[in-house]
Amino acid sequence: MDTRSDMLALYEHKIMPDQDFPVQLLRNHVTKKGYYFTPHWHEYIEMHYVRSGSTVIHCGQERFTPSAGELVVVNSNELHSGALESAFTDVYVLIFDYSFFAKNSLEDYVIFRHLIPRDEIIGQLFEDIFREDGWREPGYMMAIKGRLYELIVYLLRHYATRRLTSKENARRNRDLMRLNTVLKYIEKNFSQPITPNDLASLINLSEYRFCHLFKEVMNQSPAAYVNEIRLKRARRLLAESDMSVAEVAAYVGFNDYNNFGRQFRRLYGCSPSELRKKN
User: Fold this and answer.
1) Within this chain, do residues 194 and 59 fall inside the same structural domain, yes or no?
2) In whole angstroms, what separates CA 23 from the centre of its chain?
3) What angle do CA 254, 238, 234 make, to 5 degrees?
4) How many whole angstroms separate alpha carbon 94 and alpha carbon 79?
5) pTM of the model
6) Helix 222-240 vs helix 207-218: angle between axes, to the nearest 10 degrees?
7) 194 and 160 assigned to the same domain
């Protein structure tokens, strides 16, 4: 099997089309199951507003399943990915540089709540922003800027969970940049035996210091993260390939077939065979 697609460049250096207004507006109209964006991270805030259907979005090691009317906020410097379990989903994606909008204020950097339930004000602001972008009538850029400021202020007042200083945010960014080498190594070598000491040596840290840093940034141990990457890849193979369940288990690095089944059920709530039948 060709594994070149597994060699994911996790850090995404985004270039905004307009540096005087660092905002990207995307509309994802997805019609088939599977990843519609692969794991990556960047310094910008990314918001996914589901207009119809449902999706699965991972932020760090948390898994969210927003449906129509709900919003997922990916904070700055968070590893994230998105997949569909059902076809025909329509999502508005808004990506922006928070520091641009917060300059000359005392807000610094903000951590927003990840999953925001249906909120009519948020829904209307998203519809207004994307309608202006679609129609592009005279003054549309001013209208988008005004609605976006309204959206950010509303989220600040109702859905902010934590505020970071510039120093704290820089440290988060630095730590994730440091771990980027490790995360790419795991993505490339997930099917091979991997120990915490192997990973620590990649960035010249002791095993103890590395495990502490990894747990602090990723909110789980290196071993748990490796295990989850293997299970996610197994789930993808079960849905998209003709490999048997035993072949999938071996390919993603599980030598114990029974342990593979137990771990898979713990993460996804069903056995590998049951998932295969659904697809």
Assistant:
1) no
2) 18
3) 35
4) 16
5) 0.70
6) 60
7) no
